[in-house]
Amino acid sequence: MAKDKAEGGIVETIKTVFWALVIAGIFRTLFFQPFWIPSESMKDTLLIGDFLFVNKMAYGYSKYSCPFAMCPFSGRIFASEPERGDVVVFRHPVNGSDFIKRLVGMPGDKVQMQNGVLYLNGVAAPQEPAGVFEEVYEPQGPMRNLPRCENGAVGAGGTCTKTRAIETLPEGQKHSILNIDTAGFGDNTEVFTVPEGHYFFMGDNRDNSQDSRYAQAAGGVGFVPAEYLIGRADRIMFSSAGSRMLYFWTWRSDRYFKAIE
What we know:
Umud Fragment, subunit A, eight-stranded antiparallel β-sheet, 1 helix, globular
């Protein structure tokens, strides 16, 4: 009798775990997907160690909405058009990684960078000086990345700075951007014409982002097809500056539940 009870308990535990995984999978596929920020490409909007949930209902669903791209359909269903300025998680069209960037170019737009200024359809997006972004020059996050600094080689523990500005997109949406210089390839580009059904993304940390300015063959993302969009990032839920989430003394309580602009 005791053996039967033990076996019954094991079966019930397996069933509970199974249904918990099914419910979690449905929630992750249809509603919200957790996402950790691993790199500095979206500073200072998003910092390494920010944790957020991606709203997967925002743009509808494609096969990339499911884990391992297992959704059994092509194209998008219940599709909604993203808006310029959205911070979007999407699947890299070549290497299959999930990226997070800001949507700046819509289908049919002409996008160009000139001396560090974004031009959309021949018109410059205004930039208003907003001081300096400062951080400690030290390894950051689990990947132990070192930040790039406008003020040169400051050495371990030094203050690393970048020029900060508020950029305004044509529809009036404002967001923070960082610049290190205005002479790199990403600061002076050709005119990109965004194909129909595709989007153009850039990181807010303009001189440290592999984005649509760079061809996929060179490690960038190029133009991103609509079916690769996963969802919109709306709010930071939790943030940790340490290499491990359990290091509670590195938690950034001022970023909890912070809206993403």
